[in-house]
Amino acid sequence: MDRLKEINEAIEAYLQNGEPRKLYQAMQHLPLAGGKRLRPILAIISCEAVGGDGKKAIPFGVALELIHTFTLVHDDIMDRDEERRGIPSVHKKFGEATAILAGDALFAKAFEVASEVKENVGILVKNIATMAREICEGQQMDMSFEEMEEVSEESFLKMIEKKTAKMFEHAAYGGAIIGGGSDEETLALRSYGRNLGMAFQIWDDYIDIMGKKIGKPVGSDIREGKKTLMFIHAQKTPYKEKLAKLYGKKEATKEEINSVIEIFKEAGSLDYAKNKAFAFVNEAKKCLGKLKESNAKEELMKLADFAVKREK
Amino acid sequence: MDRLKEINEAIEAYLQNGEPRKLYQAMQHLPLAGGKRLRPILAIISCEAVGGDGKKAIPFGVALELIHTFTLVHDDIMDRDEERRGIPSVHKKFGEATAILAGDALFAKAFEVASEVKENVGILVKNIATMAREICEGQQMDMSFEEMEEVSEESFLKMIEKKTAKMFEHAAYGGAIIGGGSDEETLALRSYGRNLGMAFQIWDDYIDIMGKKIGKPVGSDIREGKKTLMFIHAQKTPYKEKLAKLYGKKEATKEEINSVIEIFKEAGSLDYAKNKAFAFVNEAKKCLGKLKESNAKEELMKLADFAVKREK
Hints:
The structure is a homodimer. In chain A, 71% of the residues lie in helices and 1% in strands. By secondary structure, the first copy, chain A, is an all-alpha fold.
């Protein structure tokens, strides 16, 4: 099946028009603006990797995508971000009150969709509800980091585990449960998803510095003073003071941004983050050893590599 | 069983401390500040009214209470209300970002709790997820009313049905499903809950004008220009112009508030709203005719009367 097409069609069908019009337009704004759909894709392939029919995992995968989008809508309000995926954020376009509500309604819709799963609905709903609460914990940690001068690597990893990796973990785990995998298989895929998510987030911060992420200005993490793994690493080196003068400077020039990147290079922080991401990818691939050979397994291997190769 | 005590203990157990501390404090703020717990009580009595063990409905009832609280937390942000239940609203105390997150986390927690129901978990989760989305629709309608000069009674009733009555409807319906009621019984209780909720909301607006609602200044609906049933009725009488001068005046004096109340009296709007609430209560009681005699049924009768007798 053409997974992306089926996922997109399902999302469109679940988010069809309703009343009041403004609320539904705000709900549709971000989910219908594209996206890689990594979480539903991961759920579907994980279902297939244990011998299940991938189609059965579509509603569950869509539920995850809706939860993902709901968190983006609310995070953008909290972080005052005005752009997302190259278009205005929901609160920028529809106002803050409607954006809060649209996020809530997407969250509710996610559980409507998830409840359509035929078997194991109780455990699947419980898992993604706990996951959603942990994502909130992760976002709260992330916000608290903004007010802290130093953040430990341990806290940072805990934060991205909750905020990002949990959802990859449950995409793979839930997909495997729907596919009827054995305990060994479902737990292996759960661990795969978690490691994949960790790599994904570290790489995401890395390409914010190095690459050209679409829909976001280059160096925005540097201007915002985001506590990334690179920053946390560099702070433990003699470059700490030099970095402190430039990092988090809202009006930093292009030259200053480049200076920060140079510092990260010289301090070995870029390599450090890169290697950390690679290590998580290797760990993820190792988990796949528990699965029988299949096309789906091959795809999971490729997905792991993609997580640390992509440039957007 | 002492229902209120059991419900409160369950809520406390479900909302025990977690990390980050600030998020959990914000989550606990409103649910642990008391409240009538009408929704869980309604779920429990409805369960008993069809011959079920009321204890089995506690997690489901708590899930509803958490959803109710989550909507209050977010509504207070949207409406810029700084007080609730006589204490500062969550965003006033913890800041807006944490309040958005605390609401989200309460919503997530509600589904964690609801997923613990042993039987019919799929349908129960679907029902309350749809209900939550409809509550969002109701809140969006309510906000849009603020910008409208005239609102039809039909639109008003549709709004309170979504924003308030749906939750009473699903409390009674879900409780009856958990109690193993027949289709006739569960549908009768569903209709009972809906009518009870309609009466409850109309009466709530009525006592805002007439009574002394705890935790809210007297006449606040008048100062905010809230489109209540009384206002909608009075707007269709010759008092319309007199009312327009005073209704929605932020800095209205006590005398001006009293003038509005006088207008509502003379225009017959107070009686109109009161009678409408009574009519919904009668409709609710009629639904109970389908149930066998029991203590629980008696209590549902009393609950219906309470909805239009209470003064806070």
